[in-house]
Design brief:
The protein is about 40% helix and about 15% strand. The protein has about 375 residues and is an alpha/beta fold. It folds into two domains: about 130 residues, Aspartate Aminotransferase, domain 1 (Alpha-Beta Complex), CATH 3.90.1150.10; about 240 residues, Aspartate Aminotransferase, domain 2 (3-Layer(aba) Sandwich), CATH 3.40.640. Helix 2 packs parallel to helix 7, helix 3 runs parallel beside helix 4 and helix 7 crosses helix 10.
Amino acid sequence: MKPIYLDHAATTPVHDEVIEAMVPVYQTIYGNPSSVHQFGRKARNALDQARRTAARSIGAKEKEIVFTSGGTEADNLAIIGTVLANQGKGKHVITTEVEHHASLHAAQYLEQNGFEITYLPVYEDGRIRIDDLEASLREDTVLVSIMMVNNETGAMQPIMEIAELLASHQAYFHSDIVQAYGLIEINVTELPVDLLAVSSHKINGPKGIGFLYIREGTPMQSLAHGGEQERKRRAGTENVPGIVGFQKAIELTETVRSDRKERYSRYKQIFLEELSNEAVDYQINGIENQTIETIVNISFPNMNVEALLTNFDLSGIAASSGSACTAGSVEPSHVLTAMYGKGDARTVNSVRFSFGIANHEENVKEAAQRISQIIKRLK
């Protein structure tokens, strides 16, 4: 039985062309980009080219791109670094209850250190309401941090409306766009956002590399102390092979964005239609037309997520859940709890399926058939 990977929101297979781009860097571009000799200059040139590609992909300037070790570091630098640099203007931050833990835990760190955090609620569609944000804004609010696409449900937040609301306010606007980048076209000359966090391994690039867009003029306190790399905003010798691989992944994504959106949307429909054809009892968490093409989060009534994921894995299906499974117990998903409330069965019986380059129509349909058999057997 051939395994089927439906967990692209967790990480994606590295594209063959990305690997091919990285190998010669390991072999021939081994200088330190900060060195002035020819080996260092060669590495610096590769780094500069990749930065230009990253900047171009979102309509930014080269100097506004800071390479990081991934989305988590980018979120931490954006949230903690910006708030610390602007605490003279206020100590209030607004975020949501459904952020990725990279952002939530950064906000909680600030809260433990004397800052005040407002956690906006979401509703059953997984989205915030602009009125709630407007009501929470204060004169001393220095940062608003709201992700573009939720990693568990795929729900898309009204980022443009948020940005427009904040345009006349002192607060800086940060968005984790890890699940959106590569599928949703983003141009910072049109979207007035100040900070964007991106991760390579979600777009078929290598792990351990990402970038943070920092709009020119946004005060930032570095969290890593050492050398003066990345315009003094992120100390440490740059991961040149990873950055070159990331560059290639960006280039590949830009050439096939519209095709991927259409293809992954079709995969989602095939998957759901097959479950329906098999008479599986299920509910989609959130509103399907307000979610990104790659992700669908499904509640299976009277099921237990731990048993589901174990049986899926035994059947060769890779999927995941926001619930934290430990020995004999399940900690409910914080995202679904925010959407439906504590104690709701959907917080412990839901599974996220996410599509990508490891899929095709046949294995998506087969996955749905295997899942249907498991559901019927467990019932």
